[in-house]
Amino acid sequence: MRLDKFLKLSRVIKRRTVAKEIADQGRITINGNKAKSSSNVNVNDKLVISFGNKTLTIQVLNLMEIVKKDDADKMYKVINEAYARDFNAEL
């Protein structure tokens, strides 16, 4: 399954176009390798997604073509969720 489609179906990112933009900016890795929106995602892959001040690490558990909202979280498992520190707050 394409990376951008997986992120949209799993509801990690709400819109496929936004998922495509983030991937094409080089802010997503699959198993340590930079990924494009057209990269293939397989079960047990480890994705690291860099949002603005947050880095999300997930493991792919399941690939489904049709997903209900309640079942979206069954497609992945969150391994780590790290936030960047706000250095301006310390000044």
From TrEMBL:
SMART domains the record matches: S4 (SM00363)
Name of the protein: RQC P-site tRNA stabilizing factor
Keyword RNA-binding applies: yes
Subunit field text: Associates with stalled 50S ribosomal subunits. Binds to RqcH, 23S rRNA and the P-site tRNA. Does not require RqcH for association with 50S subunits.
Species this chain originates from: Furfurilactobacillus curtus
One Pfam family of this chain: S4
Highest taxon in the source lineage: Bacteria
Domain RNA-binding S4 intervals: 1-62
Entry-linked InterPro entries: RqcP (IPR025490), S4_RNA-bd (IPR002942), S4_RNA-bd_sf (IPR036986)
Record's function text: Key component of the ribosome quality control system (RQC), a ribosome-associated complex that mediates the extraction of incompletely synthesized nascent chains from stalled ribosomes and their subsequent degradation. RqcH recruits Ala-charged tRNA, and with RqcP directs the elongation of stalled nascent chains on 50S ribosomal subunits, leading to non-templated C-terminal alanine extensions (Ala tail). The Ala tail promotes nascent chain degradation. RqcP is associated with the translocation-like movement of the peptidyl-tRNA from the A-site into the P-site.
The entry's keywords: Protein biosynthesis, RNA-binding, rRNA-binding, tRNA-binding
Magnesium is among the record's keywords: no
Family membership noted in the UniProt record: Belongs to the RqcP family.
Xref: SUPFAM superfamilies: Alpha-L RNA-binding motif
Lineage of the organism: Bacteria, Bacillati, Bacillota, Bacilli, Lactobacillales
